[in-house]
Amino acid sequence: MPDLKTKDRSPSFPFIPIAQALERLTALEATFSRHPIPASKAGIAWGMKEKSSQAYQILAALKAFGLVQYEGSAEDRKATLTDAARTYLRAQQEAVKLAVVQRAALAPKIIGELWKEWGAKRPPDAVCLDELILKRGFTDSAARTFLKVYDETIEYALLIDGGMVEGSDADDPIDAAAAPDQTYEDQDGAASIDRGGAPIPPKKVGILMSGERELTAGLLSRNASYRVIVNGRVGTKEIETLIKKLEIDKEILADEETNEGVDKSAFD
After folding, report:
1. Is residue 94 part of a domain?
2. Is 37 contained in some domain?
3. Is 220 in a helix, a strand, or coil?
4. Which pLDDT band holds residue 201 (cuts at 50, 70, 90)?
């Protein structure tokens, strides 16, 4: 009887980088507020169907970064936001947010271990891939995806300079080990995020009207940032409407850039 070979499984790691995880966290909180989140319905916050496999992976990534914790098991499993996640969502000072982001970035065991080993500037891809594949049991596909997640996470958390802000001690990371993480199984999904390595700009404190709150904020490029102020309940439907409006603005800006690039001398 021939030997049955089991499918190669790479070590567990979040399949999305920290920046994308924080975006998913914001949408999750906007949809479910302070209520426990049934794991099977978490995808509703991200425009996905119930019991979506991708939604389960995203939730597992949030847990790996220490942003949610699990209660119960199987069909009764629920997720709740951790204290670290609530601090990130509520904090007004960028230094406080960054401390949470840095601790969360290093919460996944393998990212924390390799950041300590590789330092602020990791070795070339070939060297890292050999370590991941030959020493740590990654498949080739998973190793390449991991490096993508690792690079974007370390860069977004401003750990590429090797320093950490006060309150984000690498030896005291967010506890993300309360329940096992979902193992990555060579699936695509680590979206590329261009952060440019720029430092997080200081937040401009403005006066919010009654009922207004900051939904999310962050970097768009080295010289641009964004801040979304909302009023009232914001769920999946409202976020989809906002996306459509931004798409319209994108087309308008694209037209303006095209017109600016026209060689006017051709019409002289």
Report:
1. yes
2. yes
3. strand
4. very low
